[in-house]
Write a structure and sequence with these properties.
single chain; 3 domains; four-stranded mixed beta sheet; alpha+beta; four-stranded antiparallel beta sheet
Length: about 350
């Protein structure tokens, strides 16, 4: 007997709205639809944007499939409607884009914030070692959106949180270490942000003479990149490197992180030059050779760095920067010694 898993459930549920959308595309392509009739236009728009998502939801409501997987059905219906309905007959489609779509986006953001808050409370009650917002955000997103897009959603929300919401100063605990105060990271990021702003306005003035639409699209993308960098810059001070009894939590803002157990450490030393560099020698900083490091950590076996949008890098030698390097080395050596007893 075949086990009916969550994956089977979502495939089965997807078949109904996809068949509806394919049927609508078929009758439109066969010229069986008179778009001059507003009732028919409304019916097609309603089926694409309302009926299909509702039918999908009815199939998944009692399964473990995240309810937010309904969003791609909305998007599919919106894209199909934009292409198959003549522009002069897209009145109902425009209403949906203008009124319903923003409500959906705000609802998702609200849902994530509420769930993240509940998760934080649970962490505090359980006295977990970390109440780090980005870590909690990833856990929260995994209960709301499909696993494959969790890193993407978490990264985007982290950018908003650290860039615009989180303003409270972070106070380091005894087992937490900063890495942004004495490194070149802040200067590097500041320079990149300034260059982007200057180039954005310069390119905008040039391109707008050729095509105003393209100019504003490029302008929007550049400003969005600047906002991401500002969010990342602020996250550096909010996500320190953390040591506990078993492991070290390495972080580089919300752009990179990895966990190392004391038992897996072969050696750790202060230094800014590696003698034997190979393909498994990696920097924690995403800026590579542009950024500095002052500690070299070598492991007994491969580990992975979780990077931006879920990208991963394997390493056995990790190069990173810590502001209080002597104190950090001392605590790590104490941790290693405890696990060798």
């Amino acid at each position: 007997m075949t086990k009916f898993t969550a994956r089977n459930s979502i495939y089965f549920a997807l078949s109904a709205p996809v068949l509806i959308i394919l049927f609508i595309v078929l009758i439109v392509q066969a010229n069986w639809v008179n778009f001059q009739n507003p009732y028919i236009t409304f019916a097609i728009t309603f089926d694409l944007l309302i009926s299909s998502p509702i039918i999908y939801f009815l199939f998944i409501r009692k399964t473990k499939v995240p309810h937010t997987t309904i969003i791609p059905i909305f998007i599919l219906g919106l894209v199909v409607g934009t292409y198959i309905i003549p522009k002069e007959n897209q009145f109902f489609l425009h209403l949906f884009k203008f009124w319903v779509l923003p409500v959906i986006e705000l609802s998702i953001l609200f849902l994530v914030i509420v769930k993240a808050r509940k998760t934080i409370i649970k962490f505090k009650q359980a006295q977990q070692h970390s109440q780090d917002f980005y870590s909690i955000l990833k856990v929260t997103c995994s209960t709301i959106v499909p696993q494959k897009i969790v890193p993407i959603v978490a990264t985007e929300l982290a950018m908003i949180y650290y860039g615009f919401i989180r303003w409270k100063k972070f106070h380091l605990q005894e087992n937490e270490f900063s890495y942004h105060k004495k490194s070149s990271t802040q200067i590097l990021l500041g320079a990149i942000i300034m260059l982007l702003l200057v180039e954005t306005f310069a390119i905008h003035l040039l391109v707008i003479k050729w095509n105003a639409t393209v100019a504003w699209i490029l302008f929007g993308l550049s400003i969005y990149t600047v906002l991401q960098l500002i969010g990342f810059l602020k996250s550096l001070s909010q996500r320190p490197i953390v040591l506990d009894d078993e492991r070290i939590y390495f972080r580089y803002g919300f752009m990179a992180e990895t966990i190392v157990h004391y038992a897996d450490i072969e050696s750790i030393e202060i230094g800014n030059k590696v003698k034997d560099v190979d393909k498994l020698t990696k920097k924690l900083s995403i800026f590579g050779d542009l950024d500095s490091y002052n500690i070299i950590l070598k492991l007994k076996q491969e580990q992975k760095i979780d990077g931006l949008y879920g990208l991963k890098k394997k390493y056995t030698t990790l190069l990173f920067f810590v502001d209080e390097k002597e104190k950090f080395i001392s605590k790590v050596l104490m941790g290693i010694a405890k696990h060798q007893q």
